[in-house]
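Justification of computing resources. Each target in the renewal requires a structure prediction run like the one illustrated here; the chain below, 313 residues long, is used simply to show the kind of job we budget for.
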Amino acid sequence: MNYQVIIPLEFPLTAIQFATLWTLFFLLHRPESKTKGIILICYMAIWRPLHIIISIVLTLSTPSKVVLEIFAFLALVFLAGGKKKAAFITAIYLWDMGLLTDIIFSSFFTGITGSLSMTNPIALYFETSISQVTMFLWAVFYYFLMRAVTEETLKRIPLRFWLITLLTPFIGAIALFAIINPLKSQLEAGFNNFIYCGIFGLVLLILNLFIFYLYIKLITGYQAKILAVELVEIPPIYSQVNGLSEAFIKKYDLSKRQVEVTVALLQGKANKEIAKALDIEVNTVQVHLQNVYRKTGAPGRYALMALIGKGSA
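Resulting structure tokens:
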């Protein structure tokens, strides 16, 4: 296929795609390294332009494109959170949902207009714009849902749930693609079927989001109950002399810098004071605190102080 790039329309699409990736990989996972954070932002900014350039310069088969995209997402995972389970889940789910969303809107557009958008660059950009905005809305939904889920909670979610949730949109996309391919050769006779395919895909998409939302809420509530029991049985200990107990640090896998920031917070220091005391940037303090909140399950600084205060000596 020959790509006809319309430069003015590429800017808003690049901005929307950057906002989507920024919401999912930067805001959600907050890379601890400032260097990784800067590289991640630059990588997200050139994501779409690079994709277009590769599509124009290289004529690749579909399997080759899939392999390239897998490596691109693995790079996002590495920059966003290394080997964190949450980052891998985000990458896989983003790819699956993107594939299904593209096919759904392609089906709707073809069914309504009675022509393939690929043959008209303006139509293709219109379809892509709607698809990208939908993906951004999904990213916001995913962000608000997953930011309250700790790594400890993710470890307790059974593998079968992830397989069902992550594979549902992928299998749905394959099924729709298998149906649509024969229809494309008989477009004039069967373009109404594209609308039915789009409706089926949309129902599948909504069902998948509902299952994901419901289960994450259930597992988060279950984890909160377990955490409450564990706190009663083995309360975390903090003292002015000894700082945080080794048991607490090991339990929540806190890094040395995260421990220093947490101790400073418990001493009543504001973020600016913590930054000055540790000779780091205020933004870096915020990143460390966000990671501590995520690991401990505390939604904020006061909740963290209350959590540790229960076992203070």
